[in-house]
């Protein structure tokens, strides 16, 4: 883990597979700790299924831990 407790929010613009990850990641345009950027969010299987069902354009927000910096990947924490 590279860092925890990062606030993030944005719009899901895609779903992608990245090397080193066993499940797809949500590709998001939004902000992390007040800085606008594109980043990936790793969510649990149930939440991923929900986003796949609803499609791109859905809003996502929460608190997560940074598990990669390049590319930026945040694992959404359940609080």
Topology:
Blueprint: E1 3-16, E2 25-32, E3 35-42, H1 45-54, E4 59-69, E5 72-76
Summarize the structure.
This protein has 79 residues and is mainly β.
Account of the protein in words:
The structure is a single chain. This protein is mainly beta and 79 residues long. The chain is 13% helix and 58% strand. It has a 5-stranded mixed barrel. The model has no long low-confidence stretch (mean pLDDT 94).
Keywords:
58% strand, 79 residues, 5-stranded mixed beta barrel, mainly beta
Strand content: over 45%
In the sheet with the most strands, the strands line up as 1-2-3-5-4
Query: Sheet with the most strands?
Result: 5 strands, mixed, barrel
Secondary structure: number of strands:
5
């Amino acid at each position: 883990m590279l860092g925890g407790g990062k606030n993030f929010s944005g719009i899901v613009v895609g779903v992608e597979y990245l090397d080193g990850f066993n499940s797809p990641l949500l590709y998001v345009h939004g902000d992390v700790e007040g800085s606008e950027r594109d980043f990936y969010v790793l969510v649990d299987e149930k939440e991923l299924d929900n986003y796949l069902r609803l499609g791109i354009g859905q809003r996502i927000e929460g608190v997560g831990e940074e598990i990669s910096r390049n590319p930026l990947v945040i694992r959404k924490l359940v609080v």
